[in-house]
Amino acid sequence: MAEAGTVEAVADLAALISRCAQLRADGLSGDGEAWAATASTLGEGEESRAAWRAGPEAARALELHARRVG
Description:
Elements: H1 7-25, H2 31-40, H3 46-54, H4 56-69
């Protein structure tokens, strides 16, 4: 947050928290993807997150996340 320092970064975190809360309430997965994509593209918008999800680093980040929460 401090590094991004933008209103967009704050909005991204608010959207992330909302999305993950909804996923958990519905008993669905996907929170790892949301956290990893948002963290790596904080303040850059949804287009950047979508591009990140398609990249090779996404699989590694999700594997590490699954180990931590699984």
